[in-house]
Amino acid sequence: MDKNNFIFSSAQLKDYLTSKGIDTEKAFLENHTEPAKFFTLIPKYYLNLINWYDPADPLRQMAVASSLEDTIYDYELQDPIGDHSHEPVPGIIHRYPDRCLLMLTNVCAIHCRFCFRKNLLTENKAMYEQAMEYIKRTADLWEVIFSGGDPFMLTDYFLNQVMNRLDSFDHIRIIRFHTRTPAVFPRRITDKFIRNIRSRKQIIVVIHINHPREITPEFIRSLRLLKKAKVMLLSQTVLLKGVNDNTEILAELFKELVAVGVKPYYLHHLDPAAGTHYFRISVEEGKKIYQRLRGTISGHCIPEYVIDSPGGHGKIPVMWFERMSENEYEAVNFEGKKIRYTDYC
Ligand code: SF4
Questions:
Q1: Same domain for 65 and 109?
Q2: Contacts for 90 with CB less than 8 Å, ≥ 6 apart
Q3: 59 and 93: one domain?
Q4: Residues with Cβ within 6 A of ligand 1?
Q5: Which backbone phi and psi does 209 adopt, to 5 degrees?
Q6: Active site residue 95
Q7: Average pLDDT over residues 154-174
Q8: Does pLDDT of 86 surpass 70?
């Protein structure tokens, strides 16, 4: 991947904006210090979508590091959705019986400031051979979900190798990718890339996209290429304070996605990852925003609003949670277990 397409520090950000004729004195850069842990990584393409004279620009909030990240509350977790309790071999997260996550890369096209896997993106978890052997011998698996990091940032050569290997496992019928790349660095999707992900299995691509301004002509072009590979396109969105925490923005996002051929699949309540508190809204606020979507947009435009329960108990629809006290909620997960959830807002 050509490093010239990205910036890696606040100093590079300032230089890049200056080269683009942005008056950095007026661009509110003073809050954007170098983060202590999760380093800056932003594609120049994405920088060009930001209005630098608006300190509250939602795309800027998602991409540019803030000094607020360095405050970490006790309730914020290193492993917020309990990945490690379902890791039979390095590189595999096997939470549900018939599907597993395959995490072969800790590289992303962007470092989202609210990321729930910040902990993994600072260490290398790629263990290709062990992961492949696990998938091969686990006959109950029906679907393999590439996650990461961002699997669309694997090199073409390696991606092709992995796809060929998965193609040879008869019990695997579905290969799913979770990726933010089409929304933040769409030029990665090329004809060559499409040739490498072609498979005799059904491929599903779940695009992580959070704001209607991420739907650009380049994004739509990348979808056209993905459709050439007969890919089923879904989306997932994280509900984020100051970015998309209102019904109108979400309605616009979901309608536009459907209009360009992407079915909204999940709306995630923010996971309690370290240093992400300034993006968090309460469960009650989230429910209100979500309820108003019904009746505002067609049912087929509405994703499922879920909480990935801490402790590794899986995704649970937010509407299933019953409020037990001011901040305590309870719901039953897919295994019939009673799960408690504390809302720290
Ligand atoms: S692309 Fe996904 S995994 Fe990578 S930083 Fe963003 S949210 Fe995290």
A1: no
A2: 125, 127, 130, 131
A3: no
A4: 108, 110-112, 115, 117, 148-150, 180, 208
A5: -145, 135
A6: yes
A7: 94
A8: yes
The predicted model gives 339-344 an average pLDDT of: 92
Full residue range of the structural domain in which residue 37 is found: 3-70
Q: What spacing in Å lies between the alpha carbon of 47 and ligand 1's midpoint?
A: 16
**Do 57 and 157 fall into the same domain?**
no
- DSSP helix/strand/coil, 259: helix
C-alpha distances (whole Å) from 328 to each of 210, 260, 310, 317 are 27, 39, 13, 16
CA of 295 relative to ligand 1 center, distance in Å: 31
Q: Beta strands 92-96 and 42-43: pairing type?
A: unpaired
Nearest atom, ligand 1, residue 180 CA:
1
H runs (alpha helix) in the chain: 10-19, 44-47, 58-63, 128-137, 156-167, 181-184, 191-197, 217-228, 247-259, 283-293
d(CA 33, CA 39): 10
Q: What is the CATH number of the domain that holds 109?
A: 3.20.20.70
Q: What is the count of structural domains for the chain? A: 2
**Which tens digit of pLDDT belongs to each residue from 111-121?**
999 998 776 66
46 in active site: no
pLDDT at 120: 63
Q: Rounded to an integer, what distance in angstroms lies between the CA atom of residue 220 and that of residue 182?
A: 9
How far is the centre of ligand 1, averaged over its atoms, from the C-alpha of 323 (Å)? 30
pTM: 0.93
Tell me the best of 79, 93, 108, 206 to mutate to test the pocket of ligand 1, counting ligand atoms within 8 Å of each CB and taking the most.
Answer: 108
Kind plus residue range of the DSSP H or E element containing 320: none
Closest-CA residue, ligand 1 atom 3, reads 149
